[in-house]
Design goal:
278 residues; mainly beta; Thrombin, subunit H; 6-stranded antiparallel barrel; 15 strands; globular; Serine proteases 1/2
Length: 278
């Protein structure tokens, strides 16, 4: 299995990684326990988002060198902070942040920031895919009908498993295993959270921790190449409970569960480094 990372040649069944390789970039190393050749993430068999439907959705164009760039997703959690996966921002030199976009290349606002604006969890481990979370500080941004912050869980909900709850994932990833480029349009998929033991049976207990959330992907509906770091929100309350992390390496439409970083496990970390709390 592998995390949804930036660019690579491996085909991953990363069912919710919002890190998609841009058409001109390579796919980057993935947090697969067995390999780090690449990462992909896209929403397969999903639906097309309407303008302003996901005002917290962020697109990230990640520059590693003059020859290498990639794409990930993220979420706006305040006027100055974006939340995404550590495997998206690890090793980058510069990030262009797209806000308020439905068509991927047509944002309402765009900021380019250097790597010193990135905070990666100090215990991020790419081999074990643990603590896959990072923050990006951007210039203060005014909220509009197409740009606003997502709600984070309250401290009181720290121990909620969310098992059985319906959730929505969104991103610009590939729309099928056979697709050759990322989606121009923002896509979304509605799925269901399942017990972590469902993921453990596929990926093993060494990778599936209490700090993960597991989501089922029936009928080929899932996230895949290009979705890494993107938000997973409760359908009912629109509260973000996860961010796309990793999935199986066999393909995005085969029905394997997907693993996300569990936001409630990192509320203190988010508050400490950004001041954001709910």
């Amino acid at each position: 299995y592998s995390y949804y990372g930036r660019f690579g040649n491996m085909k991953f069944f990363i069912v919710f990684a919002l890190c998609i390789a841009a058409a001109s970039a390579y796919t980057v190393g993935s947090p697969v326990l067995a390999s780090t050749d690449g990462i992909n993430g896209r929403i397969t068999n999903g639906e097309r988002a309407a303008a302003g439907q996901f005002p917290y959705q962020v697109g990230l164009s990640l520059k590693k060198s003059i020859f290498s760039s990639s794409w990930c997703g993220g979420s706006l959690i305040s006027s100055e902070w974006v939340l995404t996966a550590a495997h998206c921002t690890d090793g980058i030199s510069e990030i262009t942040v797209y806000l308020g976009a439905t068509v991927r290349t047509s944002p309402e606002v765009k900021h380019t920031v250097s790597k010193d604006k990135v905070i990666i969890h100090s215990d991020w481990n790419s081999k074990k895919i643990v603590n896959d979370i990072s923050l990006i500080r951007i210039p203060a941004t005014s909220f509009t009908s197409k740009i606003s912050a997502v709600k984070l869980p309250s401290i009181a909900s720290t121990y909620s498993s969310y098992s059985g709850d319906r959730v929505v994932a969104s991103g610009w990833g590939l729309t099928s295993d056979s697709a050759s480029s990322v989606s121009s349009n923002l896509m979304y998929a509605t799925l269901e959270i399942v017990a972590n033991t469902v993921c453990s049976r596929i990926y093993g207990t060494s990778s599936v921790k209490a700090s993960n959330i597991c989501v089922s992907t029936p009928n080929g509906i899932s996230t895949c190449s290009g979705d890494s770091g993107g938000p997973l929100v409760l359908e009912s309350s629109k509260i973000q409970v996860g961010l796309t992390s990793y999935g199986a390496a066999d393909g995005c439409e085969l029905g394997y569960p997907a693993a996300f970083t569990r936001i409630t496990s990192y509320l203190d970390w988010i508050k400490e480094h950004s001041g954001v709390e709910h």
